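Bench notes, afternoon.
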Amino acid sequence: MHVAFLMQNTGSIYGAERATLDTIGLLTRASDIRVSVWLIHETRVQDRPRDLADALAALNVTLQEFPVNRALSPSLMREIRRAVDTQQVDILHTVGYKADIHGGSAVGWGRVRPVVSTVHGWLFRPDRKERFYHWLNLLWLRRFPRVIVLSRYYQDYVLRKGISADRVRRIPSGFEAGPFQPRTPDGSGFTWGMLGRLSEEKNHPLFIDAMALLHERGYAVKGIIAGTGPLDDTIRARIAARDLSDVIHMKGYMPTSTFFEQVDALAVCSRIENLPYSVLEAMARGVPVQATHVGGLPDLIEDGVTGVLVPSDDPGAWADRAAEWTQDEACYRRFATAARAKFEREFSSAQHLEAHRRLYEELIS
């Protein structure tokens, strides 16, 4: 079975790209599946990082780039169709709205060749351009024979938007976890960490304001914010304005392994999330998580059992819940152990691989 993944060359690797890389890596280990990866490369974007292409090349897959000089390109659709035919692709697997639009059109939404899309979510921002592409993406997905969603939140959302239930499959992310080694706070100050793109939907102000409250109340807390993005200067200014420059440290890009070595707990303050990889990695590593009750986060965190869920707009509530358990080592360890057990039950690499294989077989049967 030959599966070709079509995705946009974003250059950098964020959550959706990391999840896709792990899926592709797992599929390459299956003896009955051959994987190719096709990257849509927008030539009008200069000096794009090579992180994504290099990571794909390291997976030892057949990698091909399709240059294009405009957002929507009929010529790209024709090129994809030719590649599907000449390379004898059995299934086209698209990731991202540009891949959905071009790939879905190229194979006639499944009439020429089976096609499936994985939805990593939308940001629901008021930007008119984003809203247009969001609408267009959903219009195209309604015609796909299969649509993969990662969380119950997005499963409900696409059903409400007119994608029929018989076409939707929920396949959560999954990857191989290393040995379970829960951290023990060292007593020098409990360190909270945020990991991810420095952008509006991640809601860094909630974290900063909650940390200010904990600091004012006399708790020995520290903070790390890891990541890059358009709000770097804004976040730094807010930290300085709250007089927290010695408490919260901006680290820029950090490898996830380094990040998790330096934090005692993961803070997720997002306004919207699908099934964030940072939380899955924390669960696998034994790092407890406090997160906002939005999107797919309740799929990962059972409040008071595998972590803590809080409102997305209430720094006081965030600080109150954090104070309850950051000083309680038994509670800390209980969260870590329960989260790891949930990861092994629901997000293992074997489950993820088998779910994709069953779906592909379903499509070509």
